[in-house]
Each structure stands twice: as structure tokens, then as C-alpha cells.
């Protein structure tokens, strides 16, 4: 029995235009199936920015690594072998579907893992690659651990950080500009920043800083692709916060710290969602634009909301400059808001 939730499916958008939408058809055929999980793998998924490697984590506590190259090499060595080497349980269904359509290639091919990494004691909630190496990656889970792995040295943890937070960890992100900095978000409502050279103290997690600006579980953290000290965090409280860790301890913060009694480092708060902000991404070609999605199931009776929004550049310029500029528009702003 195969559950689709145990497989990772790869789609090639270049080949998909040939697959017309068919009314009433329930599924479309993926280009590649990655097998290896023994239980649901719903939350943790990442692709390496440097190599065609895919990483996933699941309820089976596994962190699983695949190389799409394994599939490409098989095709190059034997073009006739593009058929599925596995997935026996789904063969009949897949073939009969293919026979009815105009797709002659048959089943989706599948590949097995390059490695399965064991070290978590509970569900793996998120995984991420080191931005400079597809052999190094890290994972977080419901066991409150942050684990760093190195595929070159084996399948047990390279470094295991116990009690990285006071509750389940939901998300992790590795700084693309400074590979020593790793962010984690947790059900303890905080975001923590770790330095990988100094992850633990006395065996438990010793973050460089703990960011406290949410009043519910943190669901997603993402470093800015543009500025190495800036990142965002979104949470079940419906808030998406933007932080700059370099502003911690500085006297002058930007005008964005309009947030009353804002915690150190917080300089912008997006409160436009009505419910849990489950995921977001920075637009890499437009540095201050973010796309965020909320799960509005309970507040609107179903569905979700996707928002694309941009922080005005005012929040990132020196305070005096911004105040001088705002002064010119004072009457306009007052009439708009009254
Ligand atoms: C590592 O972290 C500990 C605990 O936060 C701190 O006392 C120590 O100075 C740090 N060491 C370095 C080399 O940063
Ligand atoms: C990302 O930024 C680029 C450049 O400004 C723009 O063309 C594109 O539409 C943006 N994408 C989204 C999803 O906002």
C-alpha cells in the first residue's frame, strides 16, 4: 500500500504543458517519485541551491536525501529504462490511466534515497540545506532538537542540539550570506538564532539571541535574500514580523519600529492576515516584497488567503531622513487617516 503522503513527487514544468487539464481527472502524473519514507512526510521539504538534491523529513523521524542526478544518470545510461523500477503497488492503476490518455511513457519513474538519517526522537518538522554544500543540512522536530548532518561522515548526527527551544520546533532556515547563522522557530512562540560554531553549552542549545515578538507558535522563518542580517517570522497569531539582528542593542532604530514597545530587532510587522500565517517567501528579484499565505479555515469557514505585499523603503532608511520626508506630507497623511 502506498500512501502518496509517503512519497515526494517531482514535477517538471517544462514537460507539463503537454498534459492538458482533463475535467474530472483526479490526478496528474508526476515526472519522478522519490521513495524511502515509512510514514507521512507532510511538512519538511527542501531543495539544494547548489546541486539537484532533495531533502525531506517525516513522521517516521527520518531525514531522507535524494539526488535527482540518480534518475538522470539512469536515463543517460539506458534510455529505455525510463519506466518505473519500483512502485509495484501503483502499477496497474497508473498503466490503465496512461493507456487512456495520449501519454505513452507509462508509469512515473522512481528513485531511492542516497541516504536515510536517523537521530530525531519525534516527527521531523522542517529541513534545510547548507547554502554552500548539498552534503550538509539540518533538521528540526517535535523532539525540540536541532540536528546538523554531514552526508560525507555518515548517517548519524554531526551535531545534535538538545532543547534548542522549550517546545516543538516547527521551522529552520540557514543564512544564505553567512553559513554560520541558523534560525529556528518554535511552539514556544520564539525565534532563535544559532551560530553553528557554538551551538550548545553544557549539552543544550545556546542561541546567540532569542526573538520574542509573537504570542503563538512560530510556523515559518526565512532569511532575506538581500540583506544578511534581516529575516521574517510568521506565526499562528496571524502576524508576520520582520527583524534585523544587527539592530539589537543599537540606540537608533528605524521608523518602522512604530510597533509599540517593540522587542529588540523587530522593525516591521505585517498584520494583514486574519489567521495563522503558515508560510511565506521573499521575492528574490524584488527584495522588499513578500508573498505570504494564511490558513483561514476557522475564521472564514474554509480556504486560505495569499497576499503579495511590499515594505515601503521608508522603513529602511535613516530615521532623520524619513521624518524630514514625512513632514512634507504631514497634512496629506493626517487628512487620509482622520
Ligand atoms: C559560546 O556560547 C556560550 C554560551 O552562550 C558563550 O558563553 C561563549 O562565550 C560562546 N563562545 C564563543 C567562542 O562564541
Ligand atoms: C517578484 O519581483 C519581480 C520583479 O519586481 C516581479 O516581476 C514579480 O512579479 C514578483 N513576484 C511576485 C510573486 O510578486
Automatic annotation (TrEMBL):
Residue stretches in coiled coil: none
Protein name stated in the entry: Uncharacterized protein
WD repeat ranges per the UniProt record: 117-159, 162-195, 211-244
Disordered: region residues: 77-117
Pfam family, any one: WD40
PROSITE patterns registered for this protein in UniProt: WD_REPEATS_2, WD_REPEATS_REGION
Upper classification of the organism: Eukaryota, Viridiplantae, Streptophyta, Embryophyta, Tracheophyta
PANTHER family reported in the protein's UniProt record: WD40 REPEAT FAMILY
Taxonomic source organism: Eucalyptus grandis
SUPFAM superfamilies per the UniProt record, alphabetical: WD40 repeat-like
SMART domains for the chain: WD40
TM segment ranges: none
UniProt keyword terms in alphabetical order: Repeat, WD repeat
Compositional bias of kind Polar residues: 87-97
Gene3D superfamilies registered for this protein in UniProt: YVTN repeat-like/Quinoprotein amine dehydrogenase (2.130.10.10)
InterPro entries: WD40/YVTN_repeat-like_dom_sf, WD40_repeat_dom_sf, WD40_rpt, WD_repeat_RBAP46/RBAP48/MSI1
